[in-house]
Design goal:
The termini are far apart. It is globular, with a radius of gyration of 18 Å. A three-stranded antiparallel beta sheet has the order 1-2-3, covered by helices on one side. The longest helix has 19 residues. Helix 3 packs across helix 8. With 225 residues, the protein is mostly helical.
C-alpha cells in the first residue's frame, strides 16, 4: 500500500515539475484522464504555483482545495533583479516589420518587455520562423516540442503562436527568478533545472555566450531610448 501511495506522489511531483518549467504562473486545467499515472480518481482542476522557494500543486473541486504535493528548496538561490524594464510591456520594439506587431502584442499580454522578446528571438533563430536546431527546438523562439505543447502552442512554425509561447515562458522564468535576467536567460537556454543545479548560470560555454549576447542586445536597445 505504501508503494502505491509513493508512486502516486512521484507521479504528481513529475507532473508538477514539468508544468512549472513550462507554464505561466496561472491556472491550467487538467482532468484525471490527462494524468492517469497519478491515479487521480476524480476529474478536477490542477493548479500549480511556483516561485524560487517552492512548487505546490493543488486540486480543486468547486470550492474545495486539496493539496497534492509541495516541494520546498532548502537553499536560497542568490538573485539580482535586473530592474523594472524587463516587465515594461508598453515599450516599442525594433524587429522585422512582419513580426513587430506580434512581439508587441505578446509583450503586452504577458507583461514582458517586447525588446527582451526580440533580443531572445534574434539570438535563438536569427528571425527564421522555420528554424530547427540540432536538438529539435523549433521556430522563432526555438521551443522544444514538449515545452510548446504545455505552452499551448499547436504549430511551432506559426510566428504568432511561437512568439506568444516563448514570451509566456520568459514571463514564467522572470517570475521564478525574481526578475534576474542572467538566470532567466540561462534557464531559457539550458533549462531551469541546470540553473538550480549549479546555483546560478551553468558553466556551459554555449549558455554563458547566450546570456552575454542576449543581454548585450537588450541593453543596447534600452540605451537607444
Amino acid at each position: 500500500m505504501f508503494g502505491g501511495y509513493s508512486m502516486k506522489i512521484l507521479n504528481v511531483i513529475a507532473l508538477t515539475l514539468l508544468v512549472c518549467t513550462t507554464a505561466m504562473a496561472e491556472d491550467r486545467k487538467f482532468t484525471a484522464s490527462s494524468v492517469t499515472n497519478a491515479h487521480l480518481k476524480k476529474s478536477g482542476r490542477v493548479v500549480v504555483s511556483n516561485d524560487h522557494r517552492s512548487i505546490t500543486a493543488y486540486r480543486f473541486f468547486g470550492n474545495i482545495r486539496e493539496s497534492l504535493v509541495s516541494l520546498r528548496s532548502t537553499r536560497r538561490l542568490a538573485m539580482n533583479s535586473f530592474g523594472p524594464s524587463v516587465f515594461d510591456s508598453r515599450a516599442s520594439v525594433k524587429a522585422p516589420q512582419h513580426y513587430t506587431a506580434i512581439i508587441e502584442e505578446a509583450g503586452r499580454k504577458h507583461g514582458v518587455d517586447p525588446r527582451l522578446v526580440a533580443a531572445v528571438a534574434r539570438r535563438e533563430s536569427a528571425w527564421n520562423a522555420n528554424a530547427v536546431s540540432h536538438v529539435g527546438a523549433c521556430g522563432l523562439m526555438q521551443l522544444m516540442p514538449a515545452t510548446a505543447r504545455y505552452l499551448g502552442v499547436e504549430n511551432v512554425f506559426d510566428a504568432r503562436e511561437n512568439i506568444n509561447g516563448g514570451t509566456r515562458y520568459l514571463r514564467t522564468l522572470l517570475d521564478t527568478f525574481d526578475g534576474d535576467l542572467d538566470l532567466t536567460l540561462a534557464a531559457y537556454n539550458a533549462g531551469p533545472g541546470a540553473v538550480e543545479k549549479y546555483r546560478g548560470v551553468p558553466p556551459y560555454r554555449e549558455t554563458r555566450a547566450y546570456v552575454a549576447a542576449v543581454k548585450a542586445t537588450y541593453q543596447n536597445e534600452l540605451s537607444s531610448y
